[in-house]
Amino acid sequence: VNPPGVHRGLAGVVVDTTAVSTVIQETNSLTYRGYPVQELAAHRSFEEVAYLLRYGELPDAGQLREFETRERALRPLGRTTAELLTRLPSTCHPMDVLRTAVSLFGAEDPTEDDGSPAANRAKSLTLLAKLPVVVAADHRRRRGLDPILPDPALGLAENFFHMCFGAVPEPEVVRCFEISLILYAEHSFNASTFTARVVTSTLSDLYSAVTAAIGALKGPLHGGANEAVMHMLREIGDPGRAAEWLDGALAARRKIMGFGHRVYKHGDSRVPLMQEATDRLVARTGDPEAVRLAALHTALRHAVLDRKGIHPNLDYPAGLAYHLMGFDTPAFTPIFVMSRVTGWTAHITEQLDHNALIRPLGAYNGPDQRPVPMAV
Ligand code: CMC
């Protein structure tokens, strides 16, 4: 229980205005710049959504072509970044690799401290283009493989598969991946976005804000949940064990990963579309192990709803989808970063538009003032 005047976790606290996105509680829907995310995911590419978040409007054909051309040209990594990333320990978590990479992008950029809207738009496009290259190279490094250069003939999602696996899967799989990127792109004042806004509010640079946001997203109560979902499913192992495992986990007061949400209390608006896309992946897999995992996924979803009345969040179907697409589990949260960077950078721009230093207060509950004892 919060002491009077204290809002632990800032639950329910409105800290600023935003025109980037909103959750409409009455209809349980999410809009980006006014457009329902389900409609965007059904009809638009991830690049179009990235443009929308950045400029406030969807691009026309010419604007999209120019945006895509620039994104494709910016993909190759600078030599220093590429070389330094290979020197990180091979045991290093991919989120640490990504956090380090963004820090290096800042160190390599002579305009790092230019916070003008034009400079920040250029940096946000750099991040959109280069982050998938880092994630893919690291995915291959964990498998002892050399990186594959980006292919400027391919769109962002297709190119990511190409750089990870040396091949682009069937369009339905690419589309499912793209849907996940669109759904992950933006979610108002979530913990990592708020982190980016806090850093920006001190007039620090965009790379510092994104580096900090990656640190916030890594935690399992936030973006790290998609990775944690897979660890949990592996721990349970068998669909027949879901209910029994859940009882034990709840008795031990464990949080069930991929369930619950600070904002949605009657189900995450993004889940139905992601679950449908994941179901399509399950239907096309011939792998009995994958089918068994999907059955366990469904059994646990029903058990959590029955026992606790808690609904899955986006990380629950997305985690399974990424596994079925062939990505290794530690890559799941970095994929989330590749997408959410669009929301973060839109919020950084907005924060700078009407900046106020974010500096809350704490209600002190330590010892009363007392004299320092004489040194002995
Ligand atoms: N497993 C078990 N109990 C839960 C869960 C869960 N996943 N989520 C909420 N509850 C219970 C919680 O224990 C509490 O019960 P009680 O009142 O008896 O103590 C009640 O529901 C309210 O939960 P809360 O933790 O006060 O709610 P919150 O708004 O602070 O937490 C949350 C939101 C996301 C941190 C939490 O639901 C959670 O830890 N979920 C698991 C991690 C997860 O999936 N995170 C991803 C979040 S959404 C996408 C993203 O950001 O990546």
From TrEMBL:
- Quote the catalytic activity from the record: oxaloacetate + acetyl-CoA + H2O = citrate + CoA + H(+)
Matching entries from Pfam families are given as: Citrate_synt (PF00285)
Name the UniProt key words of this record, in alphabetical order.
Answer: Acyltransferase, Transferase, Tricarboxylic acid cycle
Active site at 261, 315
Q: Which GO terms describe its molecular function?
A: citrate synthase activity
State the NCBIfam families in the record.
Answer: cit_synth_II (TIGR01800), PRK14033.1 (NF010636)
The name of this protein is Citrate synthase
Which organism does this record belong to? Streptomyces netropsis (Streptoverticillium netropsis)
What is the phylogenetic placement of the source species in the record? Answer: Bacteria, Bacillati, Actinomycetota, Actinomycetes, Kitasatosporales
